[in-house]
Amino acid sequence: MKRLTLCLLLFSCLANAQQKIKWPHHKKAVIILTYDDALDSQLKIAVPQLDAHHFKGTFFLTGDINHTNISKWRAAAAEGHELANHTLYHPCNSENMPENPLNASEKYSIYQIMREIYSMNNLLFAVDGKSERTYAYPCTETQVGGKSYVDSLRKSGLIKYARIGGDHDAIITDFKKLDPLLVPSYGLEEKTPGAKLIDFVNKTEQSGGMGVFMFHGVGGDYITTAADAHKELLSYLAKNRKDIWVATFQQAMDYISQANKQD
Fold first, then answer.
1. Which domains, and CATH codes, for the chain?
2. Is-contact 57 249, C-beta < 8 A?
3. Phi-psi category of residue 167: left, alpha or beta, with phi > 0 → left and psi -120 to 50 → alpha
4. pLDDT tens digits for range 66-121
């Protein structure tokens, strides 16, 4: 009898550990559309395409926002898009971004990167009036000066959730082990076709998990996703909105955090 009870307890623990999260309104999965670097093509093409389908994106902005576009970003925020932190100057390892030697992340200190994040939070507050902020590590690097700043970010309280990189297999299903400051994403390559974007959505839906897209340029700029491919993805998501929840990064992570507390 004791052995049977022990087996039942073990089975129960394993079942709970593998239990998939229940998405709102009986959705099967969640997709998050994120866009890096505050690019003009995002305002000109991505935002209007998102608005046409009533979807909200997450835009990781840098200090490159200026007097010519801040009003447009403010308008996007007013429509429900999330404005998120991507540092002021986008420090990146000089091997990955040799054209920007003054902002080589290997020369940064943790103090410098934290100060940039703090200052960018203040700039974003001036744009949208919000105090809670999410973050994406520039060039998906979690280190500066050869040292990780993830724990410093965690202790600072400046950032609620943070996104890292990944590939087309970066589908999240184990939410109990998900570090809210190390959330993986699908970093797109230049001119990724719409069919491949939709394939990632299908795999996410089949897993019952969460898939995070990392876009840069849309129909222009760099690491460009063609406008038609982006539109194809959004049209597919719109046709399947009954089963797929398209959320901002903070919305989805808030939901997951609350669900984990209730387990």
1. 26-262 (3.20.20.370)
2. no
3. beta
4. 999 999 999 999 999 999 999 999 999 988 777 777 889 999 999 999 999 999 99
